[in-house]
Amino acid sequence: MLTSLIEKARDHYLQQLPFVLYRKPKEAKINGIFQSDDVLHGVTDFSESGFVFAPFDDDDTVILIKVDEKLEEIIQPAHIQATLDTVEVTDDVFAKGAFVDMVEKAKDVIHSGDIEKVVVSRKKELPVSASAIDIFMKLVGTYENAFCYLWHHPKIGTWLGATPEILIKSTGNSFTTMSLAGTQLANGTDPVPTWGEKELEEQQLVTDYIGRVLEGKVTKLEIGVKESVRAGRLWHLRTKITGNFKKGELGSLIRSLHPTSAVCGIPKDRAKKFIMEHESYNRLFYTGFLGELNLTKEFSRNSNSRNQENNAYRSVRTATELFVNLRCMMWEPGKATLFVGGGITAGSNPQKEWEETENKSQTLLKVLLD
């Protein structure tokens, strides 16, 4: 079961060298990128190549792990899987009170007209005995539709996650992004959820905002329809957005999108200011982004899979695939710090917002406490 890839990762961790393991949504293989020294590289203009890890605060440095070695292995059927049952945890009365107060303050600011929406979050610390690699394998085995990763740099730390949200995918000068907002706990009896006014409003705010920030910067901009997508035991509302950008403008496009209104708020600068002033901790890489930047890949020139002769002709291009760092944790030996949050609008109910963060924490609790 992934013998050489896992052993390579363990060896890198013991030597305190940077590496990342990751599995893309719905793929049957795990990728590993390994850097041969412990140098802390930063991104300057997104023309670099490697695996990037960006913090929430867009004024801070984006970290780059260079591709000194890249491995991949197919996942075997006997992969580790966590339970999908709800994990019961003791309610933290102090944390709940502080979070509810923050939601009330956010609603006051929204009603004043200063902000349309703001995303507030909290962290949750708990003891763990499992290794980072064992947790990663449970994430991979449990969340087929998510981008699952284990990232380590000796000068930064160790992070893991299973995120459903794409920040941007690009090949050549074409790109895809998405607005993802609204959360509902999955009910086994309903094939798709019924969305309330608050969730529909929140999702539309995010979609409209992305359309505004991209206007004039891209061409052939197309905004899709709302759709319900499932990630584990949670449903989300999603709208796909596509278009083209000019050569050399990938960095500008990424900076326009990050931090997204789905993890920060609208307008971005005012929402970010509220977050910095009222959240009682540093988000670090939670609600940042991560993924492949300008990696070389082969693409078939023929879309017809039946035409085997033309399939032999393949083109080599650079591609970027970045994900928003949701449903994530910072891992240390013996301890994990989880991060959860939710979007606040004028119609938010503070008690329900707390419950939503508890539901979101289940994604990681299932692989830590089962």
UniProtKB/TrEMBL annotation:
<dbReference type="InterPro" id="IPR015890">
    <property type="entry name" value="Chorismate_C"/>
</dbReference>
<dbReference type="InterPro" id="IPR005801">
    <property type="entry name" value="ADC_synthase"/>
</dbReference>
<dbReference type="Pfam" id="PF00425">
    <property type="entry name" value="Chorismate_bind"/>
</dbReference>
<protein>
    <submittedName>
        <fullName>Isochorismate synthase</fullName>
    </submittedName>
</protein>
